[in-house]
Every structure is written in structure tokens, then in C-alpha cells.
């Protein structure tokens, strides 16, 4: 259930029809030493927040007022830098003592920044810290953050997939359905299409492979959603309740798919790596997401504990990481595989003290505070650990 702040952010974005969202990184809050007190903005979505197009050789700026959750209004500024080697938009000027993002501290790392441009000059903004708020808002807006930013509200950005073969495969699938299938079917279709259309897809490193699978499945789902729900969205409703019923059906479909998508693709990568596992087994009254090598070995008290692994799989882990500490109690060291774009140093220390190790795609490691990056496993490194223990333990 959304918190009151999460509800306001979702309502605000849906009412306006525009939103920009990103996970706050260590660089954003200035703990890496390279921060310039502001956020890079997505160039592809410049129409949402700037009157100036990204012209090479030009610099532009314009002032904006941003209203934050406690009613604080900042007189901020959007810059376009197009001269010399720069080609970027940046949002700056939040004022000294700004309470919502702690500059030079990493307390907000991993939180979700939501910017809602009501007009080019008037924005509202929210900082969401709880997993449920983050996941509900992204599902409600139909956004998957596979790059630095996610956004909604631009009608003139084409939805075609860059790979023509992949686009064809996805459209063939979408035209064959009358209702949205299960999340497993979306995942399987994505895997099949990528293997058909991307040369040597199985030889891609596992970190890149997982992110590509997640990204393309999201693209496939959006195409299918438009096909299935398009007529319902465009028709005239007889009552508000009827409209809300359709909207809730769309939201539940988005949440259901997103909840299993990452698990499905982690399963695929484990299979490709030749790692034996049990998915969502029940052991000692708990139900871990993945148990390696399996239930039989876990329940065999003669099997070496150091060769047993459990993996919790969570898209975000600001709150829910603690759940894995209670699962598969025979295994003291837990592993949490996540797409979380950063956590604070304090949170990481707490995880470490409770024997939770993070497994994060290597492309996201730079979003974490620099002092903890060496302690985070990439997916490829984690698979190497598993392979060593399973085959040689």
C-alpha cells in the first residue's frame, strides 16, 4: 500500500500526465567528489522540462520553481550546455540547507526522485524512500528504469524497437493475443526473441544479459498492453467506477508482471551457467527465492554449509532486504540480487553486519558510494563463486 506521500506523487503525476524519475546515485549527492550540485536530465525528454532544444554550440538556461513535499519552493534552474565537448541538460540551484537531498552525504542514495513538470516553469518533486512506494509508483506510471532516467508524457518518441528483427518478433506475438498472458510467457517470449535476433546472445556477459532481458521484456509488455487495453482506454465510460475498474486492472497487470520478471530472468541465467537450484522452495518454514544447489542438499545435514547458497531476488531493497535474513536459516551468509541503483554506506554496513551480500549488475556499481563498491558482487563474479563451490566444493 502506498504511503500518503507516495499517493500524492502518483496522483500528481497521473493528473499532470508527465513525470521524470531516477534513482539518486552517490554522484548525485556529491559523495564521489565529481558532483556539480545538480541533476543531469534526460536529453531525449527535453520537451518535458525545457523550452530550448539541445542545439550544438549553444548554451541556454531558464528558471523554474519546484514545490517539494513540505511546501518548500526552490528557485531552481535548468541549463542546456551545448558548447565545446558538453552536450547535457542539468537541473541546479536548490539553495543552502536544502532538506530533501543531503549534499555530501549518502543518506538519499537509492531513493527515487520524482519530478513532475506541470509547465516548463512550474515543477513539483518528491523523494520516495520505501520499496513499496517506489514499485507502486513505477507500476502506476508504467515506467521501467533501465537507463539513468525513466519518463512518461512524450507522445512523439517512437516506440519501435531498435532491432528490426526484435521488433518483428514482438509484434507477431502481440498480434496473436487477446488478453495479457502470464509474466512467464512474457519472459519466455523475450528470451526466445533475443536468441533469434541478437547474434551470440548467450555469449554476452551475464550482467549485460540480465539488463537486456529486463529492458526488452518491458518493451514487449508495453506493446502488448497497448494492444489489449488500447480500446478500453479510448472508449467513453459511463461512470467513474467503470473507469477506475479499468485503470486498476491495468495497474494490477503491470505489478504482477514486474514482480516475476526479474526472477524469471535470473532463473534463465542460472540455467545457462549450469548452476543447479530450487526456485521458491519451502525449507525450515521459510520460502527463499532461490536455493542452491537444492532442497535435498539443504536438508542433508552432512552437506557442507559453505557449499549452500540462498538468493533473495528483489528489484529494490531499501526496506525489503531484511526479509532475506530470516530465510533458509541453515545458511548463515545470504545473497541478495537486486537492480537497486545504490544504497547508503550506513545501510550497506547494516546489511554486512547481518551477513547479507549484495549482487548487483556491474553497470550499476557506479551508483553506489565509492567506498563500498569493491564489496559488491557483479552477477558474473557471483556465478564464478557458485560454479567453484558447486563443482569443486
Provide the fold topology:
Blueprint: H1 4-16, E1 19-23, E2 38-41, E3 59-67, E4 73-81, E5 88-92, E6 112-117, E7 122-128, H2 131-141, E8 149-152, H3 164-174, H4 183-197, H5 206-234, H6 240-272, E9 278-279, E10 290-292, H7 295-299, E11 309-314, E12 334-338, H8 345-353, E13 356-359, H9 379-392
Helix pairs in contact: 1-2, 2-6, 3-4, 3-5, 4-5, 4-6, 5-6
Would you mind describing this structure in some detail?
With 393 residues, the chain is α+β, with helices and mostly antiparallel strands. Helices cover 36% and strands 18% of the residues. The protein has helices at 4-16, 131-141, 164-174, 183-197, 206-234, 240-272, 295-299, 345-353, 379-392; strands at residues 19-23, 38-41, 59-67, 73-81, 88-92, 112-117, 122-128, 149-152, 278-279, 290-292, 309-314, 334-338, 356-359. An 8-stranded mixed beta sheet has the order 2-5-4-3-7-6-1-8. Strands 9-10-11-12-13 form a 5-stranded mixed beta sheet. Helix 3 (164-174) runs antiparallel to helix 4 and helix 4 (183-197) packs across helix 5. The longest helix is centred in the middle third of the chain and has 33 residues, at 240-272. It starts with a helix and ends with a helix. The model has no long low-confidence stretch (mean pLDDT 88).
Amino acid at each position: 500500500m502506498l504511503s500518503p506521500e507516495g499517493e500524492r506523487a502518483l496522483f500528481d503525476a497521473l493528473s499532470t500526465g508527465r513525470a521524470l524519475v531516477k534513482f539518486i546515485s552517490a554522484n548525485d549527492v556529491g559523495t564521489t567528489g565529481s558532483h556539480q550540485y545538480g541533476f543531469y536530465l534526460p536529453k531525449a525528454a527535453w520537451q518535458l522540462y525545457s523550452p530550448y532544444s539541445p542545439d550544438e554550440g549553444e548554451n541556454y538556461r531558464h528558471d523554474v520553481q519546484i514545490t517539494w513535499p513540505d511546501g518548500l519552493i526552490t528557485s531552481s534552474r535548468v541549463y542546456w550546455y551545448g558548447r565545446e565537448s558538453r552536450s547535457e541538460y542539468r537541473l541546479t540551484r536548490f539553495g543552502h540547507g536544502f532538506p530533501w537531498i543531503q549534499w555530501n552525504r549518502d543518506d538519499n542514495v537509492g531513493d527515487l526522485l520524482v519530478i513532475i513538470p506541470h509547465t516548463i516553469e512550474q515543477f513539483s518533486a518528491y523523494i520516495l524512500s520505501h520499496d513499496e512506494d517506489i514499485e507502486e509508483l513505477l507500476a502506476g506510471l508504467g515506467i521501467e528504469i533501465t537507463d539513468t532516467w525513466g519518463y512518461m508524457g512524450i507522445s512523439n518518441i517512437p516506440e519501435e524497437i531498435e532491432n528490426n528483427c526484435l521488433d518483428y518478433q514482438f509484434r507477431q506475438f502481440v498480434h496473436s493475443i487477446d488478453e495479457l498472458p502470464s509474466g512467464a510467457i512474457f519472459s519466455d517470449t523475450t528470451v526466445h526473441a533475443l536468441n533469434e535476433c541478437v547474434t551470440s546472445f548467450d555469449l554476452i556477459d551475464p550482467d549485460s544479459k540480465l539488463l537486456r532481458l529486463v529492458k526488452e521484456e518491458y518493451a514487449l509488455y508495453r506493446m502488448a498492453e497497448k494492444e489489449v487495453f488500447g480500446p478500453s482506454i479510448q472508449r467513453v465510460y459511463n461512470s467513474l467506477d467503470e473507469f477506475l475498474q479499468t485503470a486498476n486492472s491495468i495497474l494490477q497487470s503491470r505489478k504482477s508482471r514486474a514482480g516475476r520478471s526479474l526472477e524469471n530472468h535470473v532463473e534463465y541465467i542460472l540455467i545457462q551457467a549450469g548452476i543447479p537450484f530450487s526456485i521458491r522452495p519451502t525449507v525450515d518454514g521459510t520460502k527463499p527465492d532461490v536455493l542452491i544447489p537444492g532442497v535435498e542438499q539443504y536438508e542433508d545435514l552432512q552437506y557442507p554449509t559453505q557449499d549452500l547458497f540462498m538468493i533473495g531476488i528483489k528489484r529494490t531493497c531499501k526496506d525489503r532486504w531484511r526479509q532475506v535474513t530470516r530465510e533458509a536459516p541453515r545458511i548463515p551468509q545470504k545473497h541478495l540480487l537486486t537492480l537497486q541503483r545504490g544504497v547508503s554506506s550506513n545501510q550497506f554496513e547494516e546489511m554486512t553486519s547481518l551477513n547479507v551480500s549484495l549482487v548487483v549488475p556491474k553497470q550499476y556499481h557506479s551508483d553506489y558510494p565509492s567506498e563500498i563498491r569493491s564489496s559488491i558482487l557483479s552477477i558474473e563474479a557471483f556465478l564464478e563463486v557458485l560454479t567453484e563451490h558447486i563443482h569443486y566444493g
